[in-house]
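At this stage, I put together one protein's amino acid sequence and its backbone structure tokens, which the following lines show:
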Amino acid sequence: MYCSSSESRRRTAAALLGNLNPLPPDALALLKELIRDSDVATCHHAMQAVGSAKERSLLPLILERFREPAYRPAAAKALQAFGADAHGELLELLEDPETPSDAKGQIPPLLLPDAGQASVQRLWASLPSLEPAVRYPGLKALNKLRRDRDDLSFQGFEPRELMRLELTVAARHLLAYEDLRG
């Protein structure tokens, strides 16, 4: 599909596509190109359009962009717009060893607005295998859900052991830091 060589035209096209809901089938190929665009603003507008329309066929591209720091904020917004429909993919990304740690740490908060029981159970099950910088946001998200959502069951979820692990890791880091400072 043809895409303009003008950055401003591509950006405008991406922004205009965000106003179409549902997206016409011929817009999907264009959006695919615009999500891959090297211009960050164009890509942001395209991801916003996909999120607004909840176009699942383009969800893998949003998840790809989520791995990249420059695109992560816009990708996170688009993923949050998908709501619970994207939780399975987000949890796969969380469990994927190839996903950068800083990206993984931003996944648990994306689950909060509309987490279901299956998302809670899967997040809880994945916590022990995650690195400490990712476990903390996961525990924090689960704690918020436990506090705010009466419709979710936390029976059998006992965070004490993970909290002890987190405190042990934090203490080790603090001691190492103190040793470095001399």
The chain has a mean pLDDT of 89.
